Amino acid sequence: MSTPHPTADPAAGAAVKAADRAHVFHSWSAQGLIDPLAVAGAEGSWFWDYDGNRYLDFSSQLVNTNIGHQHPKVVAAIQQQAARLCTFAPGFAVDVRSEAARLIAERTPGDLDKIFFTNGGAEAVENAVRMARLHTGRPKVLSAYRSYHGATAAAINLTGDPRRWPSDTASAGVVHFWAPFLYRSPFHAENEQQECERALRHLEDTIAFEGPATIAAIVLETVPGTAGIMVPPPGYLPGVREICDRYGIVFVLDEVMAGFGRTGRWFAADHFGVVPDLLTFAKGVNSGYVPLGGVAISPEIAATFDERPYPGGLTYSGHPLACASAVATINAMAEEGIVENAARIGEQVLGPGLRALAERHPSVGEVRGLGVFWAVELVRDRATREPLVPYAAAGEAMTAFTAACKKNGLWPFVNMNRTHVVPPCTITDAEAEQGLAILDEALTVADTYAV
């Protein structure tokens, strides 16, 4: 464990935890089986508890603190905005709301120049789907297995991972298909070109059998996040774009997790030269300092609502505090070269470092990613690629690996048989190398469960 933080106060921590256990109902959890860490503070790439234990945040919390914890420019912007105008209804023109929209539109791919603000990513997806259905007059939406789009009504049905199962009504107009993932190819592909071609053929077959005239939208995470950080093969996203154009289907890219520097570009779509009709965002737009998300909208879809009211809205749409934090975040990222830092860290530190770990540890089946957006696939057997724990299941092996990380001062992002390496875009070389060293030690624990 690293040197204890000087502000340790175990008694205060115990009080915080007691109050949490008495009154807070936590998401995605069996309430009686969890033991939340009481957090005392955070700065940059680090946070600490009341016992003084410091953790290098290799999770960016929920992959959203792209600019790091407590960035002084963003904190100051929130304070200044609070002193001037805390809140105002979304029907008014507010300077920071307009400026946030301008800065976002300036960076989105192509001509996605209109911004509809939401409170977060799930609501952004909800509204993108609503826009697509109203624009096309069609009911169905296609999305991929191995995806996550949020926990609200439409978003959870679009989601492909097991968190969908308890809430899936099978009546939401959603059809799932297989997106490319060469390491666990559903198409028996042997290389990226085959995976791309077969995945596109599968998508076209799905459209043909569902009826092209019934499909409003195809929704894809540009680079799937929680489901495994599976970078699509060259040609896949442009291929989906062409299919959508051919059938009059709205192409929606979900950049809630991949956007705002996470992959080493402002938006992950920039890696693939593709422009969607709608793009959803949240998280990194202001590092989650104040809840904010939104939809970037193409001129054609925006024009649908020039004379026809858009039947959707939120009380807090374009909240001034949230928009002020977004303005400060985007400006700081530009001024400080934070997107460029994410790209460099991925190319020079995390990518090479993780590949070196894969060579040393039999429990590592594959590493993959871009920028500060990486996944380490843990397996029992490299030859068969059997996951270290079964799909949609927890297990002793991942529990032991996670505990080893935390014991040595690293907070990981673990999902199923993977650990995701997703630190802030502001992480330094030394911090990234320190995190890799802790992962190296923790993987020796995972190795004991591998063949």
Beta-strand level of the residues, as a percent range? 15-25%
- Largest sheet descriptor: 7 strands, mixed
Number of helices: 13
From the spread of the alpha carbons, the general shape counts as globular
Main structural class? alpha/beta
Number of strands: 16
Ends apart, CA distance between termini: 29 Å
Helical residue percent? 25-40%
Task: Provide an overview of this structure.
It is a single chain. This protein has about 450 residues and is α/β, with parallel strands linked by helices. It has 13 helices and 16 strands. α4 (about 95-105) packs across α10. The longest helix is centred in the C-terminal third of the chain and has 23 residues, at about 340-360. The protein is globular, with a radius of gyration of 22 Å. The mean pLDDT is about 95.
